[in-house]
Every structure is written in structure tokens, then in C-alpha cells.
Amino acid sequence: MAVKSVIEAVREGMFEEMCRDPDVFLLGEDVGPRGGVFLASQGFYEEFGRDRIIDTPLAEASIVGIALGAAYKGMRPIAEIQFSDFIWPAANQLIGEAGRVCYGTNGNLSVPLVVRVPYGGGIRGGLFHSQNVESYFFHTPGLKVVAPSTPFDAKGLLKSAIRDNNPVVFVEHKKTYRMVRGEVPDDDYVLPLGVADVKRAGSGVTVVSYGLMVHYCLEAAEALSGEGVDVEVVDLRTLKPLDVDTILDSVRKTGRVLIVHEDNITGGVGAEVAARIASGAFDYLDAPIGRLCGPDVPTMPFASSLEEAYMPSTESIASELRNLAAY
To answer: Which residues contact 205 (CB under 8 A, 6 or more apart)?
Structure first.
């Protein structure tokens, strides 16, 4: 067991899977000798060579298109999108093709493809280097969407995604890359996709989140513990498939729930979570379902003051939880 950052856990997960399975390969912009813009593949080019670590042109449609074709032939590509904001040219390859292939071929063709996508704000990346894109793929049948928050989760879920026979959009919050550290087992391990994790047990209020916001929720929960408010923090980890059972079990226990994410509020993951709670745990609710999300403006403002106003914070989460507890 060793303490690692999220980006180190991602790197280690990919490295182990490439050593384990020669059909796994990585392609993307600057993933070769440079090791990627975030150094996720640092040292891979020297270890695995140019046939398995493929530097591509700045052409996301080609990156995902080539990966998709390789997956059709039984290989297990990992396609890196340098920033989430650049994924739109590949949207047809993912939404129009990868997500429909298994259904369209009656299960005769699988797509063992992972697309890694650094996303999110909090680093002053501005409008075109900070977007939250998860809801677009969350809406698409046939795609799995994973959003880890810790190094332990990042490595275990990434290894599962690489071994999965379905296309997985693996979103990694950039701010967690080096900010968040935690223990990661030395031994090989995987975490099942589609299983949420209760990061903090509580009995008074449930807060449901994913990615960076999980850490802000944990900080808010700890602050409120001194006020006698016992907060349970549910980390979705996998957005699709969504672990509805864990969410409902928590809400039925606490009777109050706040859903937090930095993606736009309208049509976001939180809207679906709220709908599932309304239909599956309505009789247990002692207060309205709360949502604290990014406003409906194009993400993400560059000015630090506007970025801070856009993103949920520990303080704003604590305030919303406090209001729910007093309802």
C-alpha cells in the first residue's frame, strides 16, 4: 500500500494493463515521448514503443475513429482526449457509433474501448479548457461513464474499464490529479463498474456527488458534524450504469438529500438522480430534494471571481446541507 496522487494512480493502472495484455495500446495527442500534457503516460513510450504508444495529430475524430476500428478487431485501445473541451469532433464516433454497435449487431460485435477525458474547472482553464461533458454521454445508451474521485477508485475503475467489452468514457477531474492523494494497494485489483461508494456514513442528510465535488462534500460534512448535523456522502463513481440502489438506501435512511455537481443544472446527472429518488423514495423524504450545481452558462469562466461563483464550494454545500437539516 502506497500513497499516490490521482494522476499517478491513472498512470499505474494503464501501465499494469498494458503489461498484462498486449492488445492494450494508447493513442492521443502528445502521449508519446512527452508523456501527455498531464504526464499520464510518462515513460510509456520508452517501455512499450511507438507501436503501442501512438502520438496522433490534433484530430479527435481520427483518434476515436481509429480506436473504434481497432476495438472492432478485438484490440483494447485507450484513447486520450487532451482536454474534455476537444471531444466534440469525436462525438459522432462515440454517440453515433460506439454506443450503438452492440445493440445494432445483436451482441455479435463488442467495443472494448476506453476514452480518457480530463474535465472540470477550478484551475482557471477558461471556457475551452474546463468544460463538463459527462451529461452528453450519460444520456447515451450503450456507453458507460465513469467519474472517479480518489486514487484508489481511479486505478481500480480504470483497470475494470480497460477489461470491459463495452465503450467507456472515463472522465478524470483535472483538479484532483495532483491535489488529491490517497492509499493505493500494491497488488493487482479492480473495482466493479456501476457500484457507488459511501465515502462517509451518516444519518441526518444524504449528499450525492462525484469527482472533485466529493471532496468538497466531505469537507462540508466534517464542518457540519460540529453543529450536530450527521451527513452521509455517497460517491457515485460510475455515472452510467447508475447505482440507484445505494442512493435510495441512503435517502430512505436519512430522509433528506442534496445532489451536488459542477456541470450545468439543467439536464445534468443530478436531474436523473433526483427523478429516481422522487420515484423510489418519495415516501421517505422529510424535505424537498436539493440540487447544488453549476448555473446554466457555458462553462467555465476564466476570471477567478467568476469561476468561484460558478462552482459549488465547501461553504455553499455546507449552507445547503444546513438548510435541509433544519427543514
So the answer is: 229, 230, 231, 232, 254, 256, 257, 258, 321, 324, 325
27 and 121 assigned to the same domain:
yes
Is position 261 annotated as part of the catalytic site? no
Q: What's the total number of domains in the chain?
A: 2
Same domain, 68 and 213: no
Q: Of 129, 173, 215, 261, which is the active-site residue?
A: 129
* pLDDT tens profile 60-88: 999 999 999 999 999 999 999 999 999 99
DSSP collapsed to 3 states, 135-170: HHHHCCCCCEEECCCCHHHHHHHHHHHHHCCCCEEE
| Cα 13 to Cα 8, 148, 256, 307, distances in angstroms | 9, 13, 37, 32
Q: Nearest CA to 51 among 22, 73, 29?
A: 22
What are the φ/ψ torsions at residue 322 (nearest 5 degrees)? -60, -40
Buried (b) or exposed (e) across 287-316, using 16+ Cβ within 10 A? bebbbbbbeeeebbbeeeeebeebbbbbeb
Q: Domain residues for 261?
A: 197-325
pTM of the model: 0.97
Residue type, 24: V
CB-CB contact of 44 with 35 (8 Å): yes
208/206 Cα distance (integer angstroms): 7
Q: What does the pLDDT look like over 1-21, one tens digit per residue?
A: 899 999 999 999 999 999 999
